[in-house]
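Let's study today's protein:

:::
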Amino acid sequence: MNSYETMYILRPDLLDEQVNQTIEKYQSMLRDQGAQDLSVQLRGKHRLAYEINRQRDGIYVQMNYQANGSVVAPMERAMRLSEEVIRYLTIRLEDVSPKAAASAEAEAETADATA
């Protein structure tokens, strides 16, 4: 399983109830497909850097979860077809296991010693 972070922006004219329904829709979609450790953070309404679909503001939502790669495509397809979502982005986070962190520290110490 890989760790993913999906950030999406909702239209600013949505009511709180509609925002919560949209968040729940994507949460349940991920859970149904086997995602684990799902955490959602509603970041609130912010000004966009540039206008998207004649919108100057957007409601930002961040989801972090662990899942197989096959989970991402159906969710992004649903977001692309949704009228509530104006932008989305999913990234795969690097695995920072204790073993990987220890090897990275060892490489850093070796680099410092040779410099």
Remarks:
- The chain has a mean pLDDT of 88.
- Strands lie at 2-10, 36-52, 55-67, 85-93.
- Residues 2-114 form a domain with the Alpha-Beta Plaits fold (CATH 3.30.70.60).
